[in-house]
C-alpha cells in the first residue's frame, strides 16, 4: 500500500510504535514521520508527577534516542498540531506556524492521547482550548511545563490544593505532601479513588491519609476559584462556603480522549476514536488509532472478541497502550514481509491494574471490586481482610478460582503478588491467607533453628556432634573444627559454636 | 586443599588460601573418597554386538576409534567429528583439546558445558568491558564491602567458604540477595543483615532495569565517572526511563518501595559496594541482556574499576574461567581470541606452525551442536570429555536420542555416567589428585594443580590420549607433557585478551599470585583489571541498552494450573551428581531429587510431603518426590539438577537459548504439576 507511515501524536505510545519499527526504517523498508504538538520529542508522561514535585529531572522523562531515530531516517515534526486529515487525498494538515503545512501518508496512526479536563468553576474558563490561559497558580498536570508551577511551589514548601481524588490527584497530593507541602484534596464523591476502591477501602484510605497529615475533603462540591487582586490563585471556594486557601490549585479531574481530528476526518468516535480489534479506524485498514485516544470496540455485531470491552472506553493506562503499539508494529512488519499467517489477536481485556505511585501509602486495585464476602452471586466469591489500626486491607474477588479483581491497601508484597496473578490469570493459592502473610514478620524470618537441626550446613554437622566434641574436651572453635569440621566452611556457625563452648564448656570445667 | 596419603587412603585438609581461607564444604572434605571407589572405571570399555560392554586394551580402543574417525570424516566431511568438553578440565587439557579438534580432526565442531554455565556473563562482559574475567578484582576485596548485591547465586550452598567474604556486608546490613527462593543465601539476610528480593523467575532483567531507573531518576548516578569512563549514557537513558518501579513491580512481584530502597542503598556509598551475578539471572533466554543490565547498574553507580567497588560474576565449575579462555568454545581460540578475527587467527596459526586458513571457522554453540547429532550435516562421531550431557543439557530426552543416532560415541569419565551408558567406547581417565596442570580461578588467578597420589595402574591421561590419536592420524605438534603444553598455551595467548605469556609453572610453584593478563611488559599480572581503563580500544566501558521493546516477555505461568519451574543446586551435590552421588555421606544426606513446592500449591493438588508427583513441561515429564517448603514462591517450583533418570530436571527444560550467548533457559520453564493416579501403588 506504500511505505509512508505517518504517526500523529508523540506520547509514550507513539514512541513505542516507532521504536518497534526502527529496524524496518533503518533498512529502508518503511518511511516514518512523527508529528507532535509539543516542542519536545515524546517523553514519559507517567513520570511527569515525579518531575513536578522535584524528585527527578527533565532527562528522566526522555524516551527517544533522537540520534538513533534520525540516523535510521525517522522524520520528526515538532510543535505542530494536526488540524485535520484529508483521507481522500491522504494528507494531514498542520496548524499555521508549523514547520510544514501538510504531510502525506500511505498509512496513518493516530496516537493523539487525551487532554486534561477543566471543571466548570466560577473564575476559570472551562474551554479545553483555554488551558493555557488558566490563572496563575491554577494548573492541570499533563506536561512538564504544567509541572513547573508545582515544582516551584514544592521548592518553597507552599500550600497545595488538589481538586480530584482520583489516581492522579492522589499521587500528586501524596508526593507534594511527602516533599513537605501542606496539601488538601477535594473530592466530589463520597470516598477517594471512587473507581478503584469500594466504600470500606475508601474510608480506610482516607483515614490513612489523615494520619499521614493530608487534609481530605470528600463529598464536596467545588464552586469557585478565588483569586488575589493581582490575578494569582488565592483559594478554592466550596459549595458550603468553605474557602480552602493555597498557593496552587491542581485540577486533577480526569482526562478526555482527543477525538477531534478523527471526527473531522469522518471516522467513528464515541468516548474515544473507535477502532476494531485490529486497531483499524477505517474500513480500508489505512488509518489506525492506539493509546489513550483509542477505544477498541468492533462495530461488527458478530465479533466475539470485543463484547467484554463494551462500555469500558479507552483504558487510559500506559500498559495497554504499549501493548497496542507492539501489536500494531508486528502487524506492519508482517505486511512488509507479506506474511500470510494470521496474527494472535490483541487480548480482549487489557490489564487495568491501578498502582498508586506514592512512597507513604501502598495502594493497588484492579478489575471487579464490588461485592461483599457474604454475597456470592454467579460463581463469584469475595475474600476480605481489614485491619483498621494497621491501615491494611485486602479484598480478593475470584471467579472459577481465578482472580478477577482486588484491592490492596497497606500490604505492598500482597499487592505485588495480586497484581501478578491478576495480570496473567495464574493460579491463586487455595488458602488465600498465604498471600496476606507475605507482609508479615514470619515471611522474612527463617525461624529459629530447631535444636536437632544441622548446626554447620557446610560440613553437615549436627548440633549433637558439637556438644559431644565439647564434652570430649574441645576448648575452642578451632578444636571443634578439627574434631567435627563444624565451622570450617563459611564460618557462619562459629558464633553459635562459641556460644555452645561458653555454655557447655563452662559446665564441663 | 592439601592432601596427605595415609594407610587409610587420602586425607583432605583445608589449606589457607585467600578465596576460601582454609574453609572447605562437604564436597571438598569428602572429595578424596572418590579416588579409590570400587566402581571407578579402570579400563576402556567397548560396546559389543549384543549391546553390552567389554573391557578392552588401550590399543584396541584407540585403533577402533581412529577407524571410526576416519570413516566419519571420509563419508561426511571433517565437521562430522566433534568434541564436547567440560569446564572441569585443566587449562592444558582444554587447550590441547581445542587445538586437536581444529588441527588433528580439521573440524570446527567443538564446544563445552561452560556454554551452560558462564556464556551469558562472558558475552555481557565482553560487550560492556571488552573482556570477560569473572571477578576483575581479588575476592578478598569483598571483605570490607558494606553493600553487596548478589543476584541469582546461592553461594551458601554452592561455595560455602565464599560466605566468609560477606561478613562485613552482613554486619552493615548490606547483603542484598535476589532469588525467587528463600535460599540458604537469602537466609543470610535475616535479622537485619540485609534484604531479600523474591521476584518471579525470569523477571530479573526487569528488576535490574528498575534499580537502574531509580539510580538515574533520583539523581544517584556518578556522572563524573560516567563522563570519564563510559560511553552510551544518552542511549541507555531512554531505555531505562521506561522502567519506573511500579511498572517493574507489576512484572516482577517485587514491591516498588523495596526497589527504591535497594537502589538507594547501592548508591549510598559506592566505595565498598559490589554487584555480583550468578547462574540464576544468567541462565535465561535473555541472560546476556540480564547480565548486561547488572553491568549497566554497576556502571551508573561508578563501581567497576574503582577502588573497593566493582561488578563480577561468580564462576561455576572448577575451571570455568580457564576452560573458556583456551579454545574449547566454538567461537574462540586460545588467549580468549576470536576465531573469526583474521589477526587473532594469524597469531595462533603462527604458534601452531600452520597457515591461518588451516584453522576452521566458528563451529556451533553447545545446544545447536547437540541438536545436530546424527542429523544430515551434523556430527556423527562425538567425543564427550568431562561432561554428563544426558543430565546437564536442556531437553535431555532429545539429547539422548541424538546420542543414539551417532555412528560412534566416545565418553571419558571417572565413573560410568548416564552419558557413558549411551557410548560405544568408554574411556577411564585420571582424577584431579592424580594429575599435573593448572586451573584459572574465578579471579583470573592461575593455580597449579599438583599430583598428590599415583593414578590407578592402566589409566591414561587426556593429553596422552590426544597425543596418541594425533600420532595415529599423522598430525604433529601434540605432546603429552602438561608443562610443555602450558608453555605453548602461554605463547599462543600472548597478545590475546587472556594473556598468560609471562606465567610459568616455576613461578606458580614458587607461590606467586598471578592474575591474567600477565605479560612480559607487566609480569606482576593484573589482580585488578580496570583501575586505569577498560579493554575496549577507547578504554571506556559501554552502557548497552537492553530489554528493548521487541523483546518477548519472560515465559510466565502458561496454561491453567501453570507454575514456573526453576532449577539449581544443592549443598551436597555437584553438577550432574556423577561424583557426589557416589560419596556415602553426601548421598545419605540427599539420596534423591526432591521438588520444592509451596504448601499452598501442594494443598490445591492434594499433594503431601514426600508424595511422588509428575511435573510436565512442553518437552517432557519428570517423576519426583515433593518436598513442601514455604521458602519457594507459591507460583514456582524448584528442582535440583544433580540427578538422572525419571527425576532429571532437564527432561523438562526446553532447548531455547539466548540469541547472543547460546545459553539455555534453565531457570524459567512453564510446567504443570499433579499427583499421578498410578494404578495400584497410589
Automatic annotation (TrEMBL), chain A:
UniProt xrefs under Pfam families: Fer2_BFD (PF04324), Pyr_redox_2 (PF07992)
Q: Which domain of life is it from?
A: Bacteria
Cofactor section: siroheme; [4Fe-4S] cluster
Residues of the FAD/NAD(P)-binding domain: 4-294
Record-level Gene Ontology MF annotations: iron-sulfur cluster binding; metal ion binding; oxidoreductase activity
Q: Does the keyword Metal-binding apply?
A: yes
Residue ranges occupied by any BFD-like [2Fe-2S]-binding domain in the UniProt entry: 455-502
State the pathway, as annotated in the record.
Answer: Nitrogen metabolism; nitrate reduction (assimilation)
What keywords sit in the KW lines?
Heme, Iron, Iron-sulfur, Metal-binding, Oxidoreductase
Q: Which family does it belong to?
A: Belongs to the nitrite and sulfite reductase 4Fe-4S domain family.
State the name under which the record lists this protein: NAD(P)/FAD-dependent oxidoreductase
Q: Please give the organism.
A: Tessaracoccus rhinocerotis
Q: What is the lineage of its organism?
A: Bacteria, Bacillati, Actinomycetota, Actinomycetes, Propionibacteriales
TrEMBL record, chain B:
Q: Under the cellular component aspect of Gene Ontology, which terms does the record hold?
A: membrane
- Keyword annotations from UniProtKB, A to Z: Iron, Iron-sulfur, Metal-binding
Q: Which residues form the Molybdopterin oxidoreductase domain?
A: 40-471
The record's annotation in InterPro entries points to: Asp_de-COase-like_dom_sf, MoPterin_dinucl-bd_dom, Mopterin_OxRdtase, Prok_molybdopt-oxidoreductase
Its lineage opens with: Bacteria, Bacillati, Actinomycetota, Actinomycetes, Propionibacteriales
Q: Which GO terms describe its molecular function?
A: iron-sulfur cluster binding; metal ion binding; molybdopterin cofactor binding; NADH dehydrogenase activity
What is a biological process (GO) this protein takes part in? respiratory electron transport chain
Q: Return the protein name.
A: Molybdopterin oxidoreductase family protein
State the source organism's domain of life.
Bacteria
Positions of the Molybdopterin dinucleotide-binding domain: 563-669
Q: Which SUPFAM superfamilies match?
A: ADC-like (SSF50692), Formate dehydrogenase/DMSO reductase, domains 1-3 (SSF53706)
Checking CDD domains in the record gives: MopB_CT_Fdh-Nap-like
Pfam families assigned to the protein according to its UniProt record, in alphabetical order: Molybdopterin, Molydop_binding
Gene3D superfamilies given in the database record: 2.40.40.20, 3.40.50.740, Dimethylsulfoxide Reductase, domain 2 (3.40.228.10)
